[in-house]
Amino acid sequence: MQSKLSSTLIWRVWHLAWPLMLANASAPLLGLVDTALMGRQPDSQYLAAVALGANLFSIVAWGFNLLTMATSGSTAWIFGASGLATAGQWLRRLAGWVGLLGVSLIVLSPWLIEWGIGFYAPEESLADHVRTYLGIRVWSAPFVLLNLLLAGWFIGIQRTRVNLIATLTAQLVNILLSVFLVLGLGLGLEGVAAGSVLGDACAFLVYTGCAWKVLGYTKSHSLSTDLSTRVPSLSHYLALAFPLLIRTFTLLFAFNWFARLGLQLGQDVIAANAVLLAFLLVISSILDGYANAAEALVGQSAGARQRQGVQAAIIVTGCWSLGTALLLTLAFALSHQMLIGLLTDLEQIRSLAGAYAIWMILMPLYTWWAYWLDGVFIGLQWVRAMRNVLLLSVFAFYLPLSLLIPISSNHVIWALFAGMMALRSLMMGTLVWHRWQRIT
Question: pTM (2 decimals)?
């Protein structure tokens, strides 16, 4: 019986993870299409404007990604403790607040856009193009935030294929409409911005339609008073979200500090490091699938107070993550020269990146723990511990050592980065080990 249950759980992890891997891996496609469309315009300012505008708008999607993490963990917990109907009530409670936040961004957009443009300080003609792009693009803010919320909710209730369908729908609509509006109607950057808005809106329709179907809206909308009292308050959600917000900006600082250290060795080193670090996106796109599976399975068992279920979910998701990390390391070892060549045709950058490729090859081994354990901690709602571990790793280890140790080689920069990731993983793993017998 135990063997059967273990086999079921092993394949359950895979079925939860693979749709999220595909959804994550397909994300860069939109940027490539927008770049290609604007690259055909008569003036390079259009391409520059979309690049700057997309970077500014990505702050919304990247900064508010905590909505997905906080929602997946809390929903999985509620799903395990009280079932799908209560999870649906939780979604309705959150959706109103998140939708209001999205509308607030539209209201504040004139000031936010000017602040963002002021950060880059472009020439006035380019600034006008950025204003035009963002003036349209900002209308998708409510859809983007609600999509992040819904993505986390579907992870929490273990229906991750919905995330893949919604992501592919947004991309397909965005690409087709952008091509039609830009090449067919000649709308330029207005067409690209409108295509993005409509793509996000269509993803929202997919998410809400699937949520309606999953919940059986007419049945689950009417909950008993006793069941409704099991739905956490908004303050509980904020208690999850704020530590995740601090974690997000701490990670942002760490990656920007990595770039700043490279600046001491010249622009070629920065370029070579950017090429190598690009493969971290590949690693995260794949391993985040297992992290999300851990959020859902660990959270469900924790909510149901099933200690053995939590332990089994941790072990199985960890094994999947480790096995995939080993395969990625092997793939990078066998093909790193070819992969580097795909990203740059500048010989000096290829050569320099090749000289430090060992850090790219080993990258899956010193990062997989962090991705996997992030999912475990979110499922257990240990978000404060998750935040504290990262703060210690960055500000008690990474930053002080980088200031004390002479940056005489790029190997030093990479060793500091790898050490920070390894220390973060070691502390998280130690915390799980010490709490293993009372983990729920």
Answer: 0.86
